[in-house]
Amino acid sequence: MIDPRLHVIGKRLEKIKKIIAVSGGKGGIGKSTVASVLALCMAKNGYKAGLLDLDLSGPSTHVILGIEGTYPEEDKGLIPPEVNGIKYMSIIYFAGNNPSPLRGNDISNIIIELLTITIWGQLDVLILDMPPGISDSILDVIRLIKKMEFLVVAVPSKVAIGVMKKELKILMELNIPVMGVLENMRRKESPLLSDMIDDLNIPILGSIDLDQAIEDATGNMDRLTETGFYKQLDRVFNARTKDML
Amino acid sequence: MHEWALAESVICTISDEIIKNKLNRISRVIVKIGELQQIDLDIFRFALDTVLASCEPAVEKGSIILETELSTLKCNVCENEWSFGENIKNMQGDEAEAIHFIPEIAHTYMRCPACGSPDFKIKKGRGVWIESIEGEI
Fold first, then answer.
1. Is residue A184 helix, strand or coil?
2. Sheet holding B64-69, edge to edge
3. Chain B interface with A: residues with Cβ < 8 Å
4. HSE on the CB side for A150, CA within 13 Å?
5. Which pLDDT tens digit goes with each residue over A179-228?
6. Nearest Cβ partner of B1 from A11, A74, A106?
7. Across the strands, what pairs with A84?
8. Which residues of A touch B131 (CB under 8 A)?
9. What residues in B contact A74, CB-CB < 8 Å?
10. What residue of B is the nearest CA neighbor of A114?
11. What digits encode the pLDDT tens for the residues A167-178?
């Protein structure tokens, strides 16, 4: 028995220059906000950007960016709708706002199916919003997507960094490229993150301060671009990640 | 027309197998089509033939055989088994269409008819896969 979908995924992604998986171990550390706003930054900087929400049980990038009333177009596959310059795909187009209780094998099948039927076309960058943890979703994208790098989000918390460090270790063990760690929700200058990952020799891309304004701006792309969060992420992007594209 | 994307995956697989096994001719390919994905067989066949004609001359005309398979869903809680066909009459059209695109979305819209649990496995008849490829070196 052969799963034919695995043979076409490379073709579906071949016109994408860079694929960045935004992950980070613990939940609630702002991965989806970073992934969403990073896609917005890329689009605003003139890059052809895509965003694929792979947090199948808790998709939220559509809420953060205020994406509603769109649907993929069927044409020899599914063509993601383009919203403010971002080509967007998520399980919400199929499950709506209903809960999707999924076991591991179901998660793998959904990721494979989305990668098989989504026609991204040419992109400078595709951002993947990963769920928390190092289980099925992360193992599947490592297995299925060859030219991919991880951008790992951390918050200044011993507990969260400890979990994030486990992810970094497994990525390094598997020789998966890591762009670096992005510190999120910073409250004060602290050496905690650099001290805790010093032994791994992974760059810290920058820090984003805890921004109370992000909640009020959620769901509105124009307002998101006015937040300190956006401006700091844009600076990090322009200083560090832009050269990687 | 997302059947086209799945048909393309079948042809890509055949092409990969030709290279991997150094085959000169493909005589028989059995493609299974699971009930849950509700593939339009006419569109799928048309897409297969069109993609095939454009890229893979080593495949004999009429050698791709499509076989449909009924679905079996099994509840992980009470072990009840049922089929999508029995359940579809209770579903909205857009729910069935969502399952057509992503069969695992069945967990969003279907429940075990016996105990109401969303925790079930798709035992048979999920989507498109290749049962066998036969060819000559």
1. strand
2. B64-69, B25-34, B128-136
3. 1-2, 4-6, 8-10, 12-13, 16-17, 47, 76, 98, 101-105, 107-109, 118-119, 121-122, 126-131, 133
4. 28
5. 999 999 999 999 999 999 999 999 999 999 999 999 999 999 999 999 99
6. A74
7. none
8. 1
9. 1-2
10. B102
11. 999 999 999 999
Predicted complex ipTM: 0.96
Apex B82 CA angle, B81 and B86, nearest 5 = 170
Burial of residue A194 (number of CB atoms within 10 Å: 0-12, 13-18, 19+): exposed
Find the helix packing angle between A104-117 and B3-20, rounded to 10°: 90
Residue A31 and residue A29: Cα distance in Å, rounded? 6
Q: How far is CA A209 from CA A192, A219, A229, A232, in A?
A: 15, 20, 7, 8
Yes or no, beta carbons of A8 and B108 under 8 Å apart = no
CA angle A37, A39, A41 (to 5 degrees): 65
Amino acid at A215: E
Rounded distance between C-alpha atoms, residue B8 and residue B14, angstroms: 10
Q: Is the CB of residue B45 less than 8 Å from the CB of residue B51?
A: no
Distance from CA of A92 to the nearest CA of B (A): 10
**Torsion of the alpha carbons at A30, A148, A169 and A240, rounded to the nearest 10:** -60
Q: Which residue has the tokens 């999920």?
A: B126
Cβ burial of A216 (10 Å; 0-12, 13-18, 19+) is exposed
Token digits of residue B77? 């809680």
Question: Which pTM value belongs to this model?
Answer: 0.96
Please tell me which residue of chain B has the smallest CA distance to A56: B105
With a CB cutoff of 8 Å and minimum separation 6, the contacts of A143 are none
**A155 three-class SS:** coil
